[in-house]
Design a protein that fits this description.
The structure is a homodimer of 237-residue chains.
Chain A: E1 7-10, H1 19-34, H2 41-49, H3 51-60, H4 69-83, H5 91-99, H6 110-117, E2 122-127, H7 131-141, E3 149-150, H8 151-154, H9 161-170, E4 178-182, H10 185-193, E5 197-200, E6 223-224, H11 228-234
Helix pairs in contact in A: 4-5, 6-11
C-alpha cells in the first residue's frame, strides 16, 4: 500500500484540527470568564480570511525576512477587532486570542488515525503554522508527530515550492517518496506539481456555514479517504 | 522544580544514544553476514574523531552553505577506511556504514527518562545530527521527542550561538526558559554562555577505553543527575 512512500506530511489547519469550532469555544469561554460579552464568530471568520493576504505580504517582501504565523496573526487581529466593533481589549487580551491558534482541537479521527499511520510511515505536519505553534498544539492535543516541519523551517509559506521540496529534502527523500495529506485541493495541487504524492480527505464543516469548497476531491489525487482512519485502513495500518 | 524552564533540549550522540557500542555491534553483524572480516572498532573511533574537524570545515567555509552531518560522515569514512587498511568496500557499503548513525541504540535510561520528562516539559533533541538522521533514530529507538530540532534547521553546528539561540527562538522562549541536557561539559559551557539553563549527566563509557573526559561536571551547571531518570526525579516527573 502506498508503494515507495516513506513519509506522510499533513496540512494541519482544517485537515488535522478544527480551528473554527476550537477558537469559537475557547474565546467564548474566556470572554465569559472575563465578563467580555462578544460574539466571537465574526472575528474568527474574518481572522481566517486575513490569513492568505498576510502570507502574500511576506512573499512580496522577502527583504523583510520570513515572518512567522504567530506574528502575522497578532498583527491582523487588532484591526479586525476594531473593524467589527470589538472594543476594550488590551494587548494582553490580543496575545491571548493569538495564542488560541496553539490550542486547537483535533477532529475526532485525527489522533487515532495518525497513531495508526505512524506505524508504517514517518509522520509530520507541513503547515504554515510556526514550529512553536505546531509543537504546543501537538502536545496539548496528543498529536503523535515523529517530527514537526513547518513553513518556518524552510522560510517559505505553502504553496511555495520551497516548503514542499524542502520537506522532502530534509527527510532525506525524493519528492515522490513523500505524500501530502490535506483537506484542501489547492494545497494538493501545489504538492503534486512539485512531484509529491497526494491524499485528500474532506472536512466539509471546516468553515462552518461559510464553507464554499473542498467538499470533495477536485484533482487526480493518489488517494482519497473519508478521514484519517480510512486512510490508515487503505494503507493497511 | 526547574522553575521557569519550559523546554528541555538534549544533546544526542553520547547523551541519549550509545553511538560507539551501537556502531560496533551493527557493523560487526553486517560484516559477518557479508563475509567481511574486519575489526570495526578502530574505524568507529577514528570516524568519531573526524567529526569535529569536519564541522570546523563547514564553519570556515560558509560560502559553501551548510553541509549536513550525513554528508560529512560519508565524506570522511572512505579515506579513514583506506588509512586503516580496510579494502574492498563498495560505495553502497560506505552508504550502509554511514546510515549506521541513524540506527544508534539509546542508553538504558533514555526512553524511560525522556518519557517522564515529557510529562512536564517540551522535549527535543538539539543535535549536530541532521533532521532525517534524528527522526529515523527516534522512530527506530522509540525516543518520544515532541519535535526534532537540529543544527541543520539553524544552519549552524553547535557550539555556534545560532544553534542554541535559534532553538530557544523557534520554540517561542527566552534562552533562560530552555535547558540543555548533555553529557559534554563543553556543550553545556556554550549553552550557558548564551543564557540557557544546563543539566549534566555523565556517560563515562561513551568513548569506551578511550574516554578521557566528561566523567563528571566541570562547570556550575544548574542540575547534575546520574541519568535521565534521575533528572526526571529531580524535576518531580
Amino acid at each position: 500500500m502506498a508503494p515507495g512512500v516513506k513519509a506522510l506530511l499533513f496540512d494541519v489547519f482544517g485537515t488535522v484540527v478544527d480551528w473554527r469550532s476550537s477558537l469559537i469555544a475557547d474565546f467564548t469561554a474566556w470572554g465569559k470568564a472575563k465578563g467580555i460579552d462578544v460574539d466571537w464568530v465574526p472575528l474568527v471568520d474574518a481572522w481566517r480570511g486575513a490569513y492568505m493576504p498576510s502570507m502574500d505580504e511576506v512573499r512580496k517582501h522577502p527583504e523583510n525576512g520570513f515572518v512567522i504565523l504567530d506574528t502575522l496573526q497578532r498583527q491582523s487581529v487588532e484591526p479586525l477587532a476594531a473593524k467589527l466593533g470589538i472594543t476594550g481589549l488590551t494587548p494582553a487580551d490580543f496575545d491571548y486570542l493569538t495564542s488560541g491558534w496553539h490550542r486547537l482541537d483535533p477532529w475526532p479521527d485525527s489522533v487515532s488515525g495518525l497513531t495508526r499511520l505512524k506505524t508504517k510511515f514517518m509522520i509530520s505536519p507541513l503547515s504554515n503554522g510556526n514550529v512553536a505553534l505546531l509543537a504546543n498544539m501537538a502536545k496539548r492535543a496528543g498529536l503523535p508527530w515523529d517530527l514537526v516541519l513547518s513553513a518556518e523551517v524552510f522560510g517559505h509559506y505553502k504553496p511555495d515550492r520551497e516548503a514542499y521540496l524542502g520537506a522532502a529534502r530534509i527527510l532525506g527523500h525524493q519528492p515522490h517518496e513523500v505524500m501530502l495529506v490535506a483537506a484542501h485541493n489547492n494545497d494538493l495541487a501545489a504538492a503534486q506539481s512539485f512531484g509529491l504524492k497526494t491524499a485528500f480527505i474532506p472536512r466539509p464543516t471546516e468553515y462552518g456555514p461559510l464553507q464554499k469548497r473542498d467538499f470533495g476531491p477536485e484533482g487526480k489525487w493518489d488517494y482519497v479517504a473519508k478521514d484519517l482512519n480510512d486512510l490508515a485502513a487503505q494503507f493497511g495500518c
